[in-house]
# Entry
Amino acid sequence: MGSRTLIMIAMAGVFAVLAVLAGRVWLDRQAAARLSALAPATPVETTTIVVAAKPLRFGTEITGRNVREIRWPTEALPDGAFAKVEDLLGAAPRVVLAGLEKNEPVLSTKITGPGARATLSAVIDPNMRAVTVSVNDVKGVGGFVLPGDRVDVVMTRQFDAADAYSEIVLQNLKVLAVDQFADDRQSAPIVVKAVTLEVSAEQAQRLTLAGSVGMLSLALRAAGQTGYADVARISESELGAGGAAPAERGGTAPGRVSLTVGVIRAGERIDYLVPGTRAATGHRQPKLANPAPPAPAAAPAGPGTPPPLPISEAPAPAAPRG
# Structure
């Protein structure tokens, strides 16, 4: 055998030994990883917690048949939870205020106190009020407004056949109930005649006044949208303007103004302030909301007394002299 052949045999033997060693190291590592996976995990400290045994809706009385106890990690125990069914039931029954799903923890904030009723007052936030507005299938967004949704309140007011406007009077109001349904897990549309909203004391005044002077409609907000939009009042004269603002059309904004009307009585001018309407386009003359009070008959003119001037020619009152 030549020297070259011996060198090749020696190199092959060295590589074979290295491959065996590398394979043994890999197998040892895999066995160690498998053993660590099979080793028992560190035990987690748990305790008992009361959960719903089946879906519970608003007004459901809690009994031993619709709740049960399960094990729960102690470090993840939610506030207001009950450890035992006996602690939850007690001597007086409790009633569900917010819907519970199966295996959802029963919390003190979602149920009434012992012996309390499931009334709407129990779900109103502190310092808030509940006010009901009348709706129908159109003003109530076709029945898609459900408890827990957020809505804006739009008021439409019409003074006469050619003078009307619409504006958003309140935004981001929580719906507490529709008709007599207050279940916040309700998902099917309901065509109702009344919607109860959660408002502050001042908002309750605004909502009541708006309902007495105009017609109210609800605008349903997208889920999670809580911002407030700066929306201007829309008058009837702006319906054909394509949504452009009055200033963009070269006119003035619509609104109620006070007009001064002069009346001549026995040669003496008397000015009256009369409410009027300012046109949105700036091309129409202000329209009086109420006619000026009729002037009494002037006294007969004596010798040398000039006849009274008409209203349009009445001079402005002279400024006092210093």
